[in-house]
Amino acid sequence: MLSVPNWSRVYTGKVHDVYAPIHPVAHSGNEIIMLVTTDRMSVLDRVLPTIIPGKGEMVNAISKWWFEQLADVAPNHYLSDDVPPTVKNRAMVVQRLRMYPIECTVVGYMTRRMFDEYTRTGEFQGTALPAGLKIGNKLAQPLFLPAIKAAVGADDEPISFEQMEEIVGADVAERLKEMSLDLYEAANEIAAGKGLVIADAKLEFGSSSDYGDEEFVFADHAFTPDSATYWITEEAENGDPRAFGKDYVRYVSEDDVLAWIRGSGPTPTLAADIVDEMSSRYRYVEAALLQI
Fold this sequence. Notes:
This protein is α+β, with helices and mostly antiparallel strands and 292 residues long. Helices cover 33% and strands 28% of the residues. The strands form four sheets. Strands 9, 10, 13, 14, 15, 16 and 17 form a seven-stranded antiparallel sheet that branches. Strands 1, 2, 3, 4, 7 and 8 form a six-stranded antiparallel sheet that branches. Strand 13 (138-148) and strand 14 form a beta hairpin. The mean pLDDT is 91.
């Protein structure tokens, strides 16, 4: 367990470790917490034993950059990167929020993950799509696909928008959908100027208030390769683009992970060449976005 002076770890997620100040600090009437982004890798919501060295720093830098770029589209929880030296460059101080139990996925392009269901049914998660789409094609309109967030080691559960309304209320559901689509469109416009396409993204939101007059705040990841599928624009236009993000590991390890989950295979580890390739793809996205 990583020891951070003056902070105490209160939660361990798939990628983030969450720390609270030992002496609580208020910021504009709300508490703060610190998100430390680790080098852990998860596939199918399971944490693999193999880490990707340097991943935490890259994901943290990308997330901070996007929070800054999209601040005029939606409020977000990022406050500062003034963190202890122990976690320098892989942590950020953020506003503590009451998180909505919904993962808001937006899909704007036909991805490899969608394609099997689409070719069988002409649909994806209940939404009919035009015939003849290929991997890499842009959809006429982005799809909003909510899911119930699961605990570490369990699967997120896709739900309909009507089910989302039942869980969080119609007004909140509509606002979260609207914010998700606005953020996705704005992020893709920025990414296009960097030679990248964001094919899909998972977004999360919280509220800064427990009682009425809710402010909806963009939180957790911000279009990182852990939470979004990045393509190179030219490759997307030519069809079947490489995934510059976590999907790469999913493609090469999914069968082994499924066997592990079902108890019919050993704990999967990633080969050194896969770790190196994964790291290089994260670095590519970071360099393209941040121009470093």
